[in-house]
Amino acid sequence: MNHVVATVSQRLISIDRFEAAAELHEGIDDVQGAVKCYCLGGMFDKARALAGGILSLNKYVEERYNDHLLEHRNADELAPSEVHELASQQGPVIALQYAAKHAKLKAKQQDFVAAASVLAEHGIDPHPGNFDMYKHVAKQILSFSEAERTEKAESDLATVLHRLLESLEVTATIVGTGEKQEFEHLYQAAHLLSPTNKAKAAGLTEIAAKTR
Length: 212
Hints:
The protein has 212 residues and is an all-alpha fold. It is 75% helix and 0% strand. The model is unreliable at 74-79 (pLDDT under 50).
């Protein structure tokens, strides 16, 4: 019976009939399967009601809800008022994971300044799965033209890379020597840009030129 329900449920999900799929799972007392179907269909109130007092399912529902917000709401509504606030209520690990997800979304939208700002404000998840995104954001900001450059973006980037390097020192994250050196070089480049901007802002063009 469970195999038949699973097969039919997958077919219903493939045609976006998530509620019908969830009800199938409920019919055989498969609460976990039903909750997952409700979440897939964006029916989070029903998923919460069904999850009841099961902590693992409650956590699953809230994580999927946060994902939904991140993927479907307008950028102006995302952070920090909703996604980051919800994530922080679930603890620092979840908060860092959602900071990384938000930054990935911004990077995908080619808004690298916003990606660095999110990470500088909400913290760094040192999971290796985020390394390519961190490097991509850093390289894009470091390659900005004079017209695109801002002191805040470069300061945020330096903060992000500094915190990442600190995290790699104090956590058990496995990172290759070459990759760590790449992050160190990116940090040094971002750090060196800061005095350039400060000198330019003060009108000291000669000093600004020397810091490049």
